[in-house]
Amino acid sequence: MTAPMNTLDFTTHTVPLEGVAKISAKSVNLWYGEKQALYNINLEVAKNQVTALIGPSGCGKSTFLRTLNRMNDTIPSCRVQGDIRLDGDDIYAPDLDVVHLRARVGMVFQKPNPFPKSIFDNVAYGPRLHGLAESKDHLEHIVKASLERAGLWKEVSDRLPQPGTGLSGGQQQRLCIARAIAVSPEVILMDEPCSALDPIATAKIEELIDELRENFTIAIVTHSMQQAARVSQRTAFFHLGVLVENGPTEGVFTNPVDKRTQDYVTGRFG
Ligand SMILES: Nc1ncnc2c1ncn2[C@@H]1O[C@H](COP(=O)(O)OP(=O)(O)OP(=O)(O)O)[C@@H](O)[C@H]1O
């Protein structure tokens, strides 16, 4: 039976993970002030895979992404309930060091946001903050390796002292990915990382995402169903703050179980 109009349907259809869960979210509810934005979300993020979070504008996908490294803590009206574990560690435990958590779970934002510093210092910032480099040589090695992994080294190796803000939009986004990688995170959260980029820069980032999953676990919010289909192994479809469907990407797109997912993937709304 379908839910009557204007009544939230809380049903979630989940195809269980085949691999290992890196992050496990259970019964997550979230409010901004009086307004509830997430309802009883249960979602596992598979290790060394890309999980795409999709859904119409305002459905809560960015909000959910931000619960995974407690970025919502910076919003005073925001209240989170539930249980979120990273390799079994409760990330909302009262004694948890949030700075350490955000080193384990890095983030790349919609608009490339390099610091107003040199290319080198952008990447060196995190390792310096967390005391990860034993010497100047070691720091240079980390910066080079991070830029290489982000596919940017060849383009910037001769201009490391120049400002990061002087790079093209696509290069800036790869610089932000290098900055995230430099602290050796376990998970990288990406919130519409290509929405400010042209198709060529987007294609480069998508290729990079595919390479990165070998070493990292990735969760990506995207408005583009094509992008979700190209880069992810699992997809979670959100609607009105509810996780409607969650499973292998191909199944969600070609054989969705729920009518709300069917309507979204066939372009009937959103
Ligand atoms: N800082 C905030 N304060 C109050 N309400 C917020 C805040 N951020 C988001 N919301 C509300 O929470 C709901 C979910 O928003 P969210 O940004 O997570 O959705 P989204 O699916 O990522 O949307 P979009 O695709 O447009 O970015 C929306 O109703 C939004 O208005």
From TrEMBL:
CDD domains in the cross-refs: ABC_PstB_phosphate_transporter (cd03260)
GO terms under biological process: phosphate ion transmembrane transport
Any one annotated GO CC term: membrane
Molecular function in Gene Ontology: ATP binding; ATP hydrolysis activity; phosphate transmembrane transporter activity
Keyword check for Transport: yes
Domain ABC transporter: 15-265
Entry keyword set: ATP-binding, Nucleotide-binding, Phosphate transport, Transport
Protein name per its UniProtKB record: Phosphate ABC transporter ATP-binding protein
